[in-house]
Automatic annotation (TrEMBL):
Protein name per the record: Thioesterase domain-containing protein
InterPro entries to which the protein is assigned, alphabetical: HotDog_dom_sf (IPR029069), Thioestr_dom (IPR006683)
Ranges where the Thioesterase domain occurs: 5-42
Family matches, as Pfam families: 4HBT
SUPFAM superfamilies registered for this protein in UniProt: Thioesterase/thiol ester dehydrase-isomerase
Length: 74
């Protein structure tokens, strides 16, 4: 599947995640979620869970501070 692209709420910067861990149905657990902060620095967080659906359906990234629901860009 490769990378999944979403838009972030806080900084409106591109967030991407690489699937490397577990896939069970439509629930995919990613080892790292990467994004650029307001200073342009690349940040990474581990253990994020992203629900990925078919192209055109809604999907979301959920962690302790952010929930994003946007059109799929798969």
């Amino acid at each position: 599947m490769g990378k999944v692209f979403i838009r972030g709420i806080k900084y409106e910067e591109t967030i991407y995640a690489t699937a490397v861990a577990v896939r069970a149905g439509k629930k995919i657990i990613f080892a790292e979620v990467h994004f650029r902060d307001s200073d342009g620095n690349l940040r990474a967080y581990g253990g994020q869970t992203i629900y990925v659906f078919k192209e055109g359906e809604k999907w979301s990234l959920v962690n302790s501070t952010t929930q994003v629901n946007e059109q799929s860009k798969l």
